[in-house]
Amino acid sequence: MEAITSTLNSPIYLASGQDVKDVALAYRVGMETARECIHFCCRAIWERLKNQSMKVPSQSDWIEVAQGFAHQWQFPNCLGAVHGKHVAITAPGNSGSLYFNYKLFHKAFLSTRFFNICCTDCQYVLIDVGAEGRQSDGGVLKNSKFGKKLLQGTLDLPPAGFLPGTRTVAPYAFVGYEAFQLRKDFMRPFPAKQLTDENRVFNYRLSRAWRCAENAFGITAARWRVLLRTINLKPKNVDYVIKAACILHNFIMK
Questions:
Q1: Strand, coil or helix: what is 56?
Q2: Phi and psi (nearest 5°) for 175?
Q3: Neighbouring C-beta atoms of residue 43, cutoff 10 Å
Q4: How far apart are CA 140 and CA 171, in angstroms?
Q5: Structure pTM?
Q6: Start and end of every DDE Tnp4 domain (predicted)?
Q7: Average pLDDT of 106-126?
Q8: Which of 102, 165, 191, 228 has its CA 20 to 30 A from that of 96?
């Protein structure tokens, strides 16, 4: 009976966005039992599927992602679109302003915590979940495992290559928005002031490529509506809810 309950609770909870109280009532179990079942199932989904649907990219995988951006969005040498999202949670006790963000409510930062890196087919290449809502997008990126590996040069990224149809060599890079630091391996739009025509074209192309990350979360939230509600779980359990939703998104998209 316990196995059946733990198996059934989490998909319904993720897809419907029901409150934990409603799930507990539907299966005639206590609130804490429902929370534990949700955590158990979400963690099992993540552990079982992560190596299948979100494996650590190799150099050849990065090149394949870049080819997709060049073909679909005419933005060559792009390794992925980076975005950060906030997911509302019930603030833990004695957490003060730790989870209080600029939107004036308590949130966990969805990284993508969400901070996410996506490819052209709106699948997640990497995600980083669990940063507190008060952190800036740039701070979340810098302190994430991905950000640290990017700074250390240990992501197994491909070496610089020729731009299509030219003899110009350019590094491979990720694309983001103004909140992120401009680097050789990380591009963002030109500032809006005094843009030249070339700058405007670049910003337009970059925006089209970056939109993949925004679209990925939109599709995920539409399927797994728990991400649109205030999640009344402990932060560690919220992490696995987000991870389960993202890995199931990749599994379905494939």
A1: coil
A2: -120, 140
A3: 18
A4: 24
A5: 0.86
A6: 83-250
A7: 68
A8: 228
How far from each other are the two terminal CA atoms of the chain, in whole angstroms?
32
How far is it, in rounded angstroms, from Cα 201 to Cα 204? Answer: 5
Q: What angle do CA 247, 138, 105 make, to 5 degrees?
A: 75
Domain limits of the chain?
55-253
Q: Token pair of 82, please?
A: 């980076």
Residue 175 identity (one-letter amino acid): V
Band (pLDDT 50/70/90 cuts) for residue 6 is: very low
Q: What is the spatial distance between Cα 168 and Cα 102, in angstroms, rounded to a whole number? A: 42
Task: Read off the tokens for 89.
Answer: 């949670």
Element (H, E) at 227: none
Across the strands, what pairs with 169? 162
Q: How many CB atoms are located within 10 Å of the residue 184 CB?
A: 10
Across 17-26, 157-166, 229-238, the highest mean pLDDT is recorded for 157-166
Q: What is the pLDDT of residue 10?
A: 61
